[in-house]
Amino acid sequence: MYSIDKFYMMYAIKLAKLGIFTTTPNPNVGCVIVNNKKIVGQGYHFKAGESHAEINALKIAGKYAKGSTVYVTLEPCNYKNLTPSCCKALINAKIKRLVVASKDPNPRINGKGLKYLSSKGIQITKNILSKKAESINYGFFKRMNTGIPWIQLKLASSLDGKIALLNSKNKWISSKISRNDVHKLRAKNTAILSTSKTILQDNSTLLVKWNKLNYYIKKRYPKKFLRQPIRIILDRLNTIKPTDKIILFPGKIFLIKSKYTFENWPNYVEQIIIPEINGYFNLKYLFKILGNKGINSVLIEAGSILSGYLIAYNLIDELIIYLTPKLLGNITVSLCSINKFMNIINVPNFYFTNVKKIGPDLKLILKPIK
After folding, report:
1. Structural element, H or E, at residue 269
2. Could you tell me which of 16, 24, 50 has the C-alpha nearest to residue 230?
3. How do residues 235-274 score in pLDDT, each as one tens digit?
4. Is 54 a catalytic residue?
5. Strand 150-157 to strand 297-301: parallel, antiparallel, or no bridges (unpaired)?
6. pLDDT of residue 273
7. Catalytic residue selected from 50, 54, 134, 276
8. Cβ contact 86:77 at 8 Å
9. What one-character DSSP code corresponds to residue 120?
10. Within its chain, how far is the Cα of 272 from the centroid?
11. Is the pTM above the cut of 0.85?
12. Burial 222-234 (b: 16+ CB within 10 A, else e)
């Protein structure tokens, strides 16, 4: 039975992954319904406010849901909010057994759904491939458990640890394939964060460009389904103006400041006031605010100063480096600016979770050893 449960749960996880670009702030969830050793229903959650995975699968299963085993990657919700209670739908469908990968960390659920279903005579099997299921919702789980989003830092570097020449004649050192891959990263995250200096220097919009996504993503998600992440701009010195390129492109923007500026901002721009610590924003405080706003994950694209600060103070969960086979020499900008450490035993340490070739570059994914 255990191997069969793992087989169908793997399929449910595969379905859940189909929502990774669209579900935020909700988690990615997949569901498979099996009756007499046949899949009679399947579904996944596509977007907040639309039907959950269980409801979509039950609609396909119809009468064949009665007496079935339901495999779901996350504990069903036990309350009505934007959508009906999944627990009640499963009970009404007269399912026999529920196999779930992990409990929902949302305090409103967190075991209550499983307890309710069990009280109605439904057999419950828990913790089937829980780690795999949770890995596709790392941001949601972290936010629910700590109140803070998952923080990714993205950098591009030469072989000698440089990110640019001082003359800035070419802002790109990584390949076109790597730069296109960054749009996939942006599309997966709830928000993107950068500094006003980096944005103005690069003339950036921080938007996902649908045409830069690969063929398979575009086929699955037509342009009308593209979800643009919230753009977060650290602007301590109030250098961003309503006429700047990034502001002229509509879409939710959080402008992080030390004090309000009374300019003619569009209604999609929200100013958030954050206290400073020694000339830097209190980023821990900011991340807590972002968690309260339902942001599951933040991709940070910035220069060496902010990158160094984040690394030095252990504020990131994941480091992504596009390593290009170039040597830039001495008249350059370093990967990150860290002046805090005098002893090698105190410096930040990471471990590799993935290394893969992407075009002529290497994509390195690391997590800090905390």
Report:
1. strand 269-273
2. 24
3. 999 999 999 999 999 999 999 999 998 899 999 999 999 9
4. yes
5. parallel
6. 96
7. 54
8. yes
9. T
10. 21
11. yes
12. eeeebbbbbbbbb
